[in-house]
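User: Sequence recovery, please. Input:
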């Protein structure tokens, strides 16, 4: 029997983990001069989503769990905003956004449900 930490069983974490790979692939399209600016910010924010879900699941108090899930949700919205900015700057296409919007939406929906399931 494979051992798992509790966060590995969470749909929100599973979806956010898959999203990391999709976002990293998309960020590769940004120009090299954005390597340490927008690209780096997007990568840090998308990793923050799954990291905060994992950290929140390890907290004992429900208020702390909810807080970390809220941070994860905020990071997810930050990523989407930054990708929209990348479209505005003609770094990625509207088609790129259209393809990643559904996985972001699904992750947001599941993460929101997880956050709302935690009562103080």
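Assistant: Recovered sequence (120 residues):
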């Amino acid at each position: 029997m494979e051992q798992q930490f509790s966060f590995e069983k969470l749909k929100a974490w599973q979806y956010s983990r898959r999203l990391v790979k999709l976002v990293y692939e998309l960020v590769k399209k940004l120009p090299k001069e954005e390597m340490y600016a927008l690209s780096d910010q997007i990568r840090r924010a998308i990793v923050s989503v799954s990291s905060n879900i994992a950290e929140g699941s390890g907290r004992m108090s429900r208020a702390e769990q909810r807080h970390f899930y809220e941070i994860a949700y905020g990071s997810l919205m930050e990523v989407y905003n930054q990708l929209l900015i990348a479209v505005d700057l003609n770094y990625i296409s509207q088609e790129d956004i259209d393809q990643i919007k559904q996985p972001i939406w699904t992750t947001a929906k599941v993460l929101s449900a997880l956050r709302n399931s935690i009562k103080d």
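Helices lie at 11-27, 38-57, 62-88, 94-117.
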